[in-house]
Amino acid sequence: MDRGAHFYRCDFQVHTPRDLRWAGPEAVTDDERLAYGRRFVEACRDKGLQAIAVTDHHCMTFLPFIRRAAEEELAADGSELAPEDRLVVFPGMELTLGVPCQAIVIFDADFPNDMFSLAMTALAITQNDAAQSKVRDVVRLGAITTFSELKAKLDAHGYLRGRYIVLPNVTDEGQHSLLRAGQTDKYIGMPCVGGYSDGRYDALREGTKNKLSGKDRSWGHKRIACIQTSDSRRDDHTTLGVPSTWIKWAMPTAEALRQACLAQESRVAHDAPHVPETFIAGLSVSNSSFLGPLDLDLNPQYSALIGGRGTGKSTVLEYLRWALCDQPPSGDEDEAPNYQARRRRLIEGTLKSHLATVDVTYVLNGVQHLVRRASVDGSVQMKIGAGALQPCTEEEVRALLPIQAYSQKQLSDVSVRIEELTRFITAPIRGDLDRLQRHTLDRANRIREAYTTRQRFRDLTRTLHNRQLEERSISQQANTIRASLTGLSDADRALLDQGQHYTAAGSLVASWKVGAGTISQKARELRQLVHAQRASLPPVPAEPAAMKETLEAARAQYDGLLESALASLSEIADAARVIEGGDGAAGPWEAWKTGHAAFQTEYAAAMERSSSHTEKLQQLRSMEARVAELAAETTRTRETLATLATADENYATARGQWLDAQAEHDDLVDRECAALTARSGGLIRVGVKRYADPSAFIANLRSALQGSRVQSARLEALGEAITTAADPKSAWLAALAELESLAEYDAERGPPGTRPGAVALLDMGLNAGDIDRIAQHFTAENWLVLSLTPIESMPNYEFRAREGEYIPFKNASAGQQATALLKTLLNQPGPPLLIDQPEEDLDNPVMLEIVEQLWAAKKLRQIVFASHNANLVVNGDAELVAWFGYRTTGDQSRGTIKGVGAIDVEDARDAIKQIMEGGEAAFHLRREKYGF
């Protein structure tokens, strides 16, 4: 785990068997108290508590035993717990003061056991001997009448100073609360930054909440954090942790609790807080000529990289972006800095010579992903969970592990790139857009398949029509020849006349055999599929045990279906083969074969006897053979057409689904544009104009008509006519429909004057000559490509210059643009957000607005800033601060990470004050503006 601040579920008012109002058995001996401590730690785990404060009245007797129990706790598998996973035990006491009210004093979690008695002595507390089962009756500390006096008594002892925090009771106006009538001055003058309530904060009266939130003038507009507690004092622990408070710290100290109270919006939660589940957990660089080997863990919420210029902050962010294959915007170097080229030089200059690799650990909804990128060739590998490293592509990394990142001054450059502005819309919905894109590609592939099938169906339909025409013509010619034959016996004429009937019947029998052959083939194919499914049928799983019998019955029923299908398909295939082959000693197929052969013999003999008509008979024989051949071809074609009967319907369905996917995409973007407008607080107004960009469509059309002499200007006018039409979608579909007719027109085979009309295309600016040229050059393949090229929708961005007045976003100043964009980024959920020195893009007056947005933003997404601005770090309440410096003082050629911590850690606070201009002032502002 990183060394930054994290939320811990806490109960800071917990009593023990020494309490006078304890409900349960006593614990007097050391063994009994340790046994209780172990039961207590187990109860905390059952309740999901991660930190507690043991706060008996004027007593600290049980603390060593509970601490020991926490230190001895083992993991579920019997292994030793890591220090960060152990229950945090804060020493403390509940005090009854002469203020008059009650308060809790909590000490550092590592406050030594042997100093407990000194803390009690400092407050002049006299308590029963530890061997006694109960504390003595509570005696009010009457000499302490203000919280300033309490602080003075504690601070008088060096071993206590800075190691405690005092939380007064603020439970409405109860007898122990500080918020009773007459206590106003003592509340206003106290040096406390937090208080506690017996029970839920939500249950407090509205007037109490107003006082605590600084909304009550008569109580000095003094704002403090409220920590809700359980006041648990039962051996069955039913009330333990009910309610709890989630408090954030890096180290469990009184100072950490004080810092939490100072930033309560960020560090104190009365209900389970939301922490991003998708975040960059860490960066590891095997070696670098600038930073050397590097390992840096990042916080899931807000991590700040600070340091002097040239110490490596930006380098770390660029290493992260490079390893995660973040694609910077491309464009003309004259328009904005070329971030890609700059990053390439960094990788080549600092990593490649060391053959270095960069590892990034990325947690995606609880699953750890490791990406490793090699500087030598840029190759990428990925490991998911406990799996092995596997090669992958940059596109796969970007799709699975996205980030949103901006280099120095890049926010100010966004407005010159429409694709960069569009990232603000697409980033939060990237997963949905990728899903839609996959669906769109899949549907486009279906369209291609369906279109090919439809074209084949149409070609075969034309072929069938031609064959039928030819067959009818030749049959009539044969009949005419038969009628012209003279001098034949009545028997021979009757035999020759029967020839046409046998030919027709033979064609019919042949069609039945072809049909049987098709059924046989399909039955064999389906049988193979069923057999494969049965062979791969898995056994019934052991779990869930309660449903095992049901699953076994379901599997048996499914297996029975497969077995029955195999038997039925085998029977169908066998029956079809009998018809297809005409085999067998008896039956209609053999009878037809025999009878037809006998007729053919007699027919040939009759033709031989008609020697005077040799030429005509040869012609007749040739025609009859051709009719039989055409009949067989017709049969096969009809059979094929039967399998393609739904071609038109399938194509129309696939086309409709593709268009639906386009509409769904636009609807999704439309909704996100409205959400972006709301997230910007109205500073940015975004709308989507559908069917607005024909550039790809016209480019494909121009490419297809290359060499046709259709003027490019007229094609551009066609695109403009589509996008400016009252109904652009209908105009686009009308143009496509006419282009398809032209693509299918065959000028060489079609009669003159039969070219399809093109009313819509003519209305859109093309002339008759253009239509003729398109008909000559445009092919079905060209049309299919064009039909799958949509007229793109385009977002329109505006900036609110003043109330109710918007200007094009590009006309706003760089500072206005960057402020609006950063506010939007901080208001939207999404992947990790990395920005290098955001303050350089911002106007100073808005800095504190950004600071306050950071508190909510880090609940929505991980934030990583490299910054020189102390307010962003201190008052933005960074959970983790990594401070950079030069490896050798005075030598700016190599940097290093000097330390990592959080604001509640003294080293981190000192580093901020020393490194960052305005660091001390930022801490003063934190105290003055945010509640100290």
UniProtKB/TrEMBL annotation:
<dbReference type="InterPro" id="IPR016195">
    <property type="entry name" value="Pol/histidinol_Pase-like"/>
</dbReference>
<feature type="domain" description="Rad50/SbcC-type AAA">
    <location>
        <begin position="289"/>
        <end position="479"/>
    </location>
</feature>
<dbReference type="Pfam" id="PF13476">
    <property type="entry name" value="AAA_23"/>
</dbReference>
<dbReference type="InterPro" id="IPR054787">
    <property type="entry name" value="TrlF_ATPase"/>
</dbReference>
<dbReference type="InterPro" id="IPR038729">
    <property type="entry name" value="Rad50/SbcC_AAA"/>
</dbReference>
<protein>
    <recommendedName>
        <fullName>Rad50/SbcC-type AAA domain-containing protein</fullName>
    </recommendedName>
</protein>
<dbReference type="GO" id="GO:0006302">
    <property type="term" value="P:double-strand break repair"/>
</dbReference>
<dbReference type="InterPro" id="IPR027417">
    <property type="entry name" value="P-loop_NTPase"/>
</dbReference>
<dbReference type="GO" id="GO:0016887">
    <property type="term" value="F:ATP hydrolysis activity"/>
</dbReference>
